[in-house]
Amino acid sequence: MKKAITLLMVTLFFFACKSTSSTTSTTVKSEPVANTKLDKSSQVSIKGDWTITSVTYPGSDYIKVNSFQIADSKCFVGSTWNFISNNNKGSMSLTKSDCPAFSSPIVWSINKDGVFVLKIVEAGVKSKTITQGYLLRVANQTEASFQLIDTINVGGQTKEVTYQFEKIISTKN
After folding, report:
1. Would you say residue 6 has pLDDT above 70?
2. CATH number for region 2-167
3. Helix or strand or coil: residue 73?
4. Count of CB atoms situated within 10 Å of the CB of 91
5. Which among 112, 45, 33 has a CA at the least distance from the CA of 83?
6. Which PROSITE patterns match (predicted)?
7. For 103-112, how does the pLDDT look when each residue is reduced to its tens digit (9 = 90+)?
8. 121-168 residue pLDDT tens
9. What is the pLDDT of residue 153?
10. Residues 110 and 38: beta-carbon distance below 8 Å
11. What is the DSSP string of 131-165?
12. In Å, what is the CA distance from 138 to each residue of 48, 92, 153?
């Protein structure tokens, strides 16, 4: 019985997440996640501190993308992310000048289909009460870098927004 309840909760978690991006108006897409089994090796390799070094998408000179309903996608360049693989928690912070300051805990996972599930958690709120999140695709994963790819709708056409992550190498002895 306990296993059935746990499986049901995990399934609900994945089905409740959706990716949201916007250009001039908010475009919401909701995709069921077919595979709820976690990819532990991918999660472990993302463990640690990362920074986004670039955000690219076709038409970036003309189109603004509001990433994660927080700020313009260009504000995420230089943002820092911490991923803890044993409990799928972490944090993210925007610190770029001329952009809104933002910092938040996150809950994340990667399933066997390479889908990165992200929940941005407000301070004092339990992640299990959050029913919305973001689904991105993990690509080009190495020890030192990886990409998260979001699919957005721009004028009826599907475009990909690529967030390039680079590992922050600690200089501590």
Report:
1. no
2. 2.40.128.280
3. helix
4. 16
5. 45
6. PROKAR_LIPOPROTEIN
7. 999 999 999 8
8. 876 666 666 768 899 999 999 999 999 999 988 888 889 999 999 999
9. 85
10. yes
11. ---EEEEEES--SSEEEEEEEEEETTEEEEEEEEE
12. 16, 17, 19
